[in-house]
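User: Here's a structure from my thesis project, written as structure tokens. My advisor, Dr. K., wants to see whether a designed sequence matches the one we expressed. Can you design one independently, without my sequence as a hint?
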């Protein structure tokens, strides 16, 4: 391989890395836009990572009077609070992987499906106030902030 070919390959690798970094930074900006959009109509809004298998997807999570939302540019999802069967908080994911400080997980179970959101422990404490932990069969006690 000539020096020109090596320089071209190295340049392409650097370009790909720069594009990936740019897209990640842009995704954070877009999550912030979703947070701003929900702020006026929500009791609580924060940033979290939605855990899907081994992947952590940055999302804006928010809570209205009767609905929990999690959104980003590629995902707009929600469910009614009345459909939540269980609420758990902790430092371990359903996969058994333990989270390092300062991260905590909020796990919501709806009809057998678990939805996990990893967030800063300070944000998690706020969520625990408005959606307290509860087991199967216990009544929802979502509170106003």
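Assistant: Designed independently from the structure alone:
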């Amino acid at each position: 391989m000539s020096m020109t070919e090596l320089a071209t390959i190295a340049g392409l690798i650097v370009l790909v890395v720069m594009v990936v970094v740019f897209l990640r930074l842009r995704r954070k900006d877009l999550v912030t836009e979703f947070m701003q959009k929900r702020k006026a109509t929500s009791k609580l809004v924060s940033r979290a990572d939605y855990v899907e298998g081994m992947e952590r997807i940055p999302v804006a999570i928010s809570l209205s009077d009767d609905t929990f939302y999690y959104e980003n540019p590629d995902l707009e999802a929600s469910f009614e609070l009345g459909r939540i069967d269980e609420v758990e908080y902790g430092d371990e994911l359903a996969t058994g992987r333990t989270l390092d400080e300062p991260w905590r997980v909020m796990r919501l179970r709806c009809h057998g499906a678990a939805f996990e959101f990893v967030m800063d422990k300070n944000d998690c404490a706020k969520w625990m106030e408005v959606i307290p932990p509860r087991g199967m069969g216990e009544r929802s006690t979502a509170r106003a902030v």
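When you compare it with your expressed construct, this may help: The radius of gyration is 19 Å.
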